[in-house]
Write a structure and sequence with these properties.
The chain is mainly α. The chain contains eleven helices and four strands; from the N terminus they run ββαααααββαααααα.
Length: 288
């Protein structure tokens, strides 16, 4: 079936692929009409600042406006964006495709569409078919953390439930990600060129301590928390372990930080400690 259709006005529009990103869809229209993507976007939404902005923060009015222009349902426009993704998870949305599902990605499309799942930094499996995601550039790197796969899948679900479905628990999984990527204390103090690799996550996944300097030259941070696909199972497993162990593990991890990093850890973790205390108090009251 053709990926284009004529609307009643006679204009030619591209059909969105399943799970296609809104900016990708607009860019494919731009390619068809031989104009820059931003020109196409501002033709539709003059107030739009960038393609990234409409992916993340499309308003309901803009959603309806695009739906009218392209003669599709507003709900379909919304599903192409991250507008409903929890704000706490936005840092886990990549600015460019980092992975691909070989089952769900169209192979013959030109220009190739970008799917939402290609930007989700908490996924290791495809949200549509469940297949293992692959690196976009080929040259597949095997994950050295396959032994943590079961825990990693639990962590993936926790993060996905929070981001895509708004499910809240005693501790935000995205917040746990930020805690695990904070720097930890190491004695004796390492050289300045080595400090980047010592993270709280290594207290839970000790293999990282030796593997990290061998397989990469920098480590994601709480501000930029997206790990390469082959390293991601370690982080997802860490999220699952902390979440299931409760505040006690957070207190243990806190002791591995120091100085400014401990202050940041406390600031991020304080709501989680409070939630855990309230939950414990509620449970005790029910037992009385």
């Amino acid at each position: 079936m053709s990926r284009h259709r004529r609307c009643p006005r006679g204009d030619l529009f591209c059909r969105p692929y399943p799970d296609e990103l809104l900016s990708s869809w607009i860019s494919r229209h731009a390619a068809f009409y031989v104009v820059p993507p931003l020109v196409m976007l501002r033709h539709c939404l003059p107030e739009a600042s960038s393609l990234r902005a409409v992916d993340l923060q499309l308003s309901s009015d803009q959603e309806i406006h695009l739906a009218i222009i392209f003669a599709i349902e507003p709900a379909l426009v919304q599903r192409m964006t991250f507008a409903n993704v929890a704000q706490s998870s936005h840092r886990l949305i990549s600015t460019r495709p980092t992975q691909v599902c070989t089952n769900c990605s169209p192979v013959d499309a030109e220009p190739a569409p970008i799917l939402r799942s290609q930007l989700l930094g908490w996924r290791i499996t495809c949200p549509r078919c469940g297949s293992q995601l692959r690196h976009t550039g080929g040259g597949e790197l095997p994950s050295p953390f396959q032994q943590y796969r079961v825990a990693a899948l639990r962590g993936e679900k926790l993060l996905d439930d929070e981001a895509e479905h708004g499910i809240r628990t005693w501790a935000s999984p995205a917040g746990i990600v930020r805690l695990l990527l904070m720097r930890r204390a190491v004695l004796p103090f390492p050289g300045e060129d080595e400090m980047w690799r010592f993270r709280v996550l290594e207290k839970i996944i000790p293999e990282l301590d030796e593997l990290l300097p061998e397989i990469c030259t920098s480590c994601p941070t709480p501000q930029n928390p997206i790990l390469p696909l082959h390293l991601r199972p370690a982080l997802l497993a860490g999220v699952a372990m902390v979440h299931s162990s409760g505040a006690e593990m957070l207190y243990m991890l806190r002791r591995s930080t120091f100085g400014l990093h401990r202050h940041r850890f406390d600031r991020e973790a304080m709501p989680f400690f409070a939630n855990a205390a309230r939950k414990r108090h509620s449970t005790q009251m029910q037992l009385i």
